[in-house]
Amino acid sequence: MSHTALGSTKRPAAFLVHWPSRLAWIGLGLYVLYAAGQVNVSWERFVSGLPQAAKLFDRMFPPNLAPDKLDLITTGMLETIQIAVIATVVGVILSLPLSVMAARNLSPAWLAASARVFIAVCRSFHPVIVSILFVKAVGFGALAGVLALIVSSLGFVGKLFAEVLEELNEKQVEAVRSTGAGFFSVLIMAVMPQVFARFIGLSAYQFDSNLRNSTMVGIVGGGGIGAALFTAYQRFDYDVVLTILIVIIALIMLAELLANSLKKIFR
Amino acid sequence: MNRPLQIVNEQHWERFSATERIGRSAFYIVTVLAFVWALKKIEVIPEFLYDAPEQTADLFKRMWPFDWKFYPDNIHPALIETFHIATLGTLISLLIAVPLAFLAARNFTSNKTLNWIAQFIFVSTRSVNSLIWALLFVAIFGPGALAGVLSIAFRSIGFVGKLFGEAIEEANKGPIEALTASGAPRSMLLVKGYWPQVSPAFWSVALLRWDINIRESAVLGLVGAGGIGVALDSAMNNLYWDQVGLILAIIFTVVILTEIVTSTIRSRIL
Amino acid sequence: MTAVGPGLLSINGLFKEYRQGEPVLKDINLSIDASGVTAIIGPSGTGKSTLIRCINRLIDPTSGQIMFRGLDLAQLTGRSLREARCHIGMVFQEYNLVERLTVIENVLCGKLGRLPIWRPLLRKFSAQDIAQAFDLIDAVGLSQDFASRRADALSGGQRQRVGIARALMQEPSLILADEPTSSLDPKTSVEIMELLDQVSRQRQVPVIVNIHNVVLARRFATRIIGMSSGKVVFDGPPEALQDKHLNEIYGGEDWQA
């Protein structure tokens, strides 16, 4: 092909400027500058806080390992785990019928819509806020935390599992149905195999999430280690705070490891 | 991952191998045991339980009707502040998490130490709740939105980094191989090879985390890190339940709206 | 067949084993010094793909020498390897285009090895490069309006043409093609082989093709190299390829395409 002088051959432009995205980027930049000013977030403030951070870390090290503190922490951690276990088991079991109700391919429109609204409400509030409400209703302690996390589990597992059910491969269900199987047989042989692995995965993820949240609900009275953490914090016992943080991080990392190996078993 | 789907040999069909069956049974048994143990140990004060329905009814009665007058001066600025905290925090976390995710991705960075360091940063930032981060940052920087922004940012680094790192590892190797074969430098492998493949995942994760952060920012004020949580905290301390009711309703509306917006955009990206 | 100076490729004693004691390539000695298509044929697993990929070091040889433009490719690393690769274009079985980029951007990617970083980053390519890319899109038989289509909106044959255009963008002294037709239907396979042959003759660039289809190889290649169990067992023009050679290469396998 002979290369003629540029511009003498009619050619489309190689790269068109996509104005909407360019404007969006500029808008984003302007927003960041505006917002940072509004909430008084600036690099200078960050840097000027660093000496204070150094002081804090100084008071945190070494972590407090006194036996009475450790005792307190152990009780708190066990309670945290208990809250997470109960909330996950109950929440997951309750989500099963709830998500079937919310799945638009498995239940009538009016039922699906109401179930979805219910799930949305459960999901909209942070577990800490829900804990505050339950503390008012059933008093301080682990029960409030458990109930709050059950609500949160319904919100997440219910929604995600309803989506899994909606993505069901219709053909497989049809095939089993055409052999004359009844509703429950269809459920077991066609629906369950497709969704079971996903369901276990979601439950494991929810347990992990509940464990993280149950470390916090104590701050507002919902039981678990959060209470001990908050008390130590308010008393400026930062070395105790560090111990508790280390234990929390270790616990969550352990839970993540377990969740990963669980996924491998259930693949 | 590559296990046979079923074990089939003459006249014998099993869905799972022996080790898998043991693993699955162990899991069920452990779950049941854990549940029973937890139930036994948990303390429930019966008196509180009995008047729970009455307490709940009382609570809802006090919340409604909402104290609408309260809104303009007290809630609106706090709401806007919450929005700023969530957005700025998410943006900062993206700036930090994206390069770290490329370091963590084993197909992009072959240095195992770097992989490990990045993964460690992700796991540790993920393991601390934003509320707990808020406690720390309030202790360092004092109460206010700065602590809130940093809490959101730090917590999100782990979330974004892990998901985005996984997306990078799932990138198709073919185009990368082609660009390598033509002598392209590593920076260009990233810009023209990896980035076009993973950018939908990036936007999806960013929007998802932003959505979650809106929810989280609302409660940070309970420990003094700015946003609508501060208004909620003071309303609750003063037992102004009608204000509390209003605030909760506002939070609910904002969260729902954000979720609708982000899930619509996310479903169109992927 | 005219001699092509810079395209001189000389492989000496190439040896590759993935696992100790199980060599995939045994003592390969070859030299390519003319334009035209050289087809490497042989059954699956015989090392054809490994050989091709050793040339531009997508796979590292265990030992041996690969002389190209006066340098031993087997010894190069880092910057010098990248510079050497700039002169070798490659076409793949799975096309290996960046799916979400447009055709013209994919073609321009061929020049990534030679451009300063800011150009592809900001998409500010020189007018010359863009004109060259459009010319190449023409040259491979695609019309101008393909330029701004996304690569994943193209058919297999069209994608392979873009892949060839991308390789040509490098202005290479050698083109490697790893089973370029294996994912294409018979008619498109012929078209692509025709294109490779045409490109080779017009631009005086040797093309080494790895191919299963003996009929296509016979039709378009000017030289055929037959491999069996990691060794070269036939090296000559297509006219010299007889049934007894094919039996040796394919060992009684059905080699009729």
Topology:
The complex is a heterotrimer of chains A (267), B (270) and C (257).
Chain A: H1 19-38, H2 43-60, H3 67-102, H4 109-124, H5 127-138, H6 142-166, H7 170-178, H8 183-214, H9 225-234, H10 238-265
Chain B: E1 7-9, E2 12-14, H1 18-41, H2 46-50, H3 52-63, H4 71-104, H5 112-127, H6 130-141, H7 145-169, H8 173-181, H9 186-220, H10 228-237, H11 241-269
Helix pairs in contact in B: 3-11, 4-5, 4-7, 4-9, 4-10, 5-7, 6-7, 7-9, 8-9, 9-10, 9-11, 10-11
Chain C: E1 9-19, E2 22-32, E3 36-41, H1 48-55, E4 63-68, E5 71-72, H2 78-85, E6 88-92, H3 103-108, H4 118-122, H5 127-139, H6 156-169, E7 174-178, H7 186-203, E8 206-210, H8 214-220, E9 223-228, E10 231-236, H9 243-250
Helix pairs in contact in C: 5-6, 6-7
Question: Can you tell me about this structure?
Answer:
The complex is a heterotrimer of chains A (267), B (270) and C (257). Chain A contains ten helices and no strands. Chain A is mainly alpha-helical. Chain A has one domain (68-265): MetI-like fold (Orthogonal Bundle). In chain A, helix 3 packs parallel to helix 6 (142-166) and helix 8 (183-214) runs antiparallel to helix 10. The termini of chain A are far apart. By secondary structure, chain B is mainly α. Chain B has two domains: 7-60, no CATH class; 67-269, MetI-like (MetI-like fold, Orthogonal Bundle). Chain B has helices at 18-41, 46-50, 52-63, 71-104, 112-127, 130-141, 145-169, 173-181, 186-220, 228-237, 241-269; strands at 7-9, 12-14. In chain B, strands 1-2 form a two-stranded antiparallel sheet. Chain B is globular. Chain C is of the alpha/beta class and 257 residues long. Chain C has a domain at 1-83 and 206-257: P-loop containing nucleotide triphosphate hydrolases (Rossmann fold, 3-Layer(aba) Sandwich). Helix content of chain C is 34%, strand content 25%. Chain C has helices spanning 48-55, 78-85, 103-108, 118-122, 127-139, 156-169, 186-203, 214-220, 243-250, and strands at residues 9-19, 22-32, 36-41, 63-68, 71-72, 88-92, 174-178, 206-210, 223-228, 231-236. Chain C has a six-stranded mixed beta sheet, with helices on both faces. Chain C has a four-stranded antiparallel beta sheet with strand order 2-1-4-5, with helices on one face. The mean pLDDT of chain C is 90. Classes of the chains: A mainly alpha (267), B mainly alpha (270), C alpha/beta (257). The interface between A and B is large, with 64 and 66 residues.
